[in-house]
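ok posting inputs for the inosinic acid job
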Amino acid sequence: MDRIIVAASRNRHKIEEIEAITKKFGMRIISRDEAGVPPVEIEEDGDTFEANSLKKAEEIMKLCGKITLADDSGLMVDYLGGAPGVYSARFAGEDGNDGKNNEKLLKLLEGVPANKRTAKFVSVITMVYPDGTALTARGECHGRIITEPAGDGGFGYDPLFVPDGYEKTFAQLSAEEKNAISHRAAALAELEKLLEARI
Ligand code: IMP
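and the output
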């Protein structure tokens, strides 16, 4: 029988990816709304992906009393000292405006040669149980930032990120291809290992 798990995120793209990846683990992801969670905003005020991920999972679990899974994720660019990092969603100030975030990133990297445009996506997935137990898993995907957006799949910084070993951006790869190699897939695979070890 599928394990029913509430997604703390309201980001449609993230939920689609998490659903597609966890289906094969026998998890059924339901939305916050389906779980009866009121439309509260959770302030992401932690300095790390781990802190924000735990906070989101704990707060939503307390509101629905069910096993809850949160993803806190972002892009870390080496030339920018790891920025935008935990500020990825609000890099250009307006929360969640992917176009402006991408524009700002390209501007900051103007003239930077290809070999210095290395970056990684990070995803920290936290699963919190009604008894307060928390499991945390981190996944990373390394690659580089190109000089102009390419592709229209995915979300966020996908049109600017080419994963190592590929010549296409995440936005040019199919959902299946991205979900096989992404930071989110790596974190969820790690979570599945932690779950298996608990049984
Ligand atoms: P969060 O909701 O605070 O975890 O913000 C995550 C932000 O990081 C998103 O709004 C995107 O800007 C970026 N991000 C995380 N994962 C991805 C991804 O898979 N593709 C593109 N951008 C991502």
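notes: Strands lie at 3-7, 27-30, 68-77, 118-128, 134-145, 161-163. The helical segments are 12-22, 49-64, 98-108, 175-181, 183-198.
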